[in-house]
Amino acid sequence: MRAPFLPDFGKTGQIIFSAFSIAIVSFVIHIALAKLTAKEYNYQINVNQEWLALGTMHIVASFFGCFAGGSSLSRTIISAKLGSRSQLTTLVVVIILLIIAFGAAPLFKYLPKTILSCIVVIAMKELYMKICWSRILFRESTVDFFIFLVTFTAVVLININIGLAIGIVFALLTVVLRSQWAESTCMGRIPGTSDFKGIGHYRAAMEISGIKVFRFDAPLYFANAELFLSSMHSATGLDPLNIVAKLKQTVDEKKKIADDKISKKTEIIDKDEEIQLTVRRHSIQPSKGDVEVNKEAEDLIQLTHIIVDCSSFPYIDLMGVDALARAHAEYKAINITVFFACCKVAVRQMFEYSHFYEHVPKSYMFVSLQDAVAQAQYEQQQDIRFGSSAEAVPSKIMLPSINPDVTQSSSTNDK
């Protein structure tokens, strides 16, 4: 055995990449074998303890010029087949190896290597046969199957270091892509209970009149913030910006018609007649002969509240916070109140850090869906929405003179 010496750190830059790759591969194989064995014999492992053991082993071994160590796939499987239960098996193996190395090696000189190979292959037969599970994996989870297929192919065709890296990147990519096709649904209450379930999945779930409960089943972050808004518009059946544009167009058309009538009557007006013009904001009451209000406006009259179920948000980033604030502001412009319910601690903390409550009052946050629904129903009964709508319109998308109802009436002077 060599005497201990201080490693030469001058070559660190030349070997850092290779050393890092070996460390990752060694740790991955070690943990995979540990978990495989733990699952078979029903015991738990501590990943941090395994990490500490590997690190300590390599630090001490580095002062003696040892090679990087790690778990041996074949030796571990053989030990498990022989009935080993503890690390004392390694001590027995070391003693046998020392005997062979220092005296018994000539005895195995004429032993065919195929015999030793057969021992390893037979011991690992079950492990090799697990590749047949890919067919079952394909039926149960297509995404997991392709992660396995890409990683396996990359390891076989390239090498284990790059192959594992490709597998990790591909797995992360599938997570991002799946969040791009997150499921969203409107929820209804199960009669006789306070539970809310997806209407598309539970036939007994019934929507509450004038209230939409919306759920987006994915973390809300930069990659799917726009998807959240478009899904919300689709699920509720209302696109606020589209409605605002159409209502503005309706307002302009009605103003133009009214102005034309006024200008024509002004030219031939009698002294016995006068025109009175009344503009009422924030109301859609078409009179006889007026242009028919579009379907979106009719839906707008019926829908008063939208409740976003935030229980499906494990985390949220700044773009997600901005999406929630935009949803609140857009629907507020058309006099629909947006509540947020069941927010997790991490989500509420992000609201605090990002000053979300400067745009959305804390009174719009609820602990449960039932509380949010109860408040919405109370506001419907008290007609609070119509009393405070004029003050609630945000300045950024405020509609000046929105939906005026122009009425003309004539009166005769007593002249």
From TrEMBL:
Q: How does it sit in the membrane?
A: Multi-pass membrane protein
Which Gene3D superfamilies does its entry note?
A: STAS domain
UniProt keyword annotations, A-Z: Membrane, Transmembrane, Transmembrane helix
Subcellular location, record wording:
Membrane
Chain ranges passing through the membrane: 12-31, 51-68, 88-108, 145-177
**Principal location class:** membrane
* One CC-aspect GO term: membrane
Q: Provide the STAS domain boundaries.
A: 201-376
A GO biological process held by the record: transmembrane transport
Please give the name of this protein: STAS domain-containing protein
The species this protein belongs to is: Onchocerca ochengi
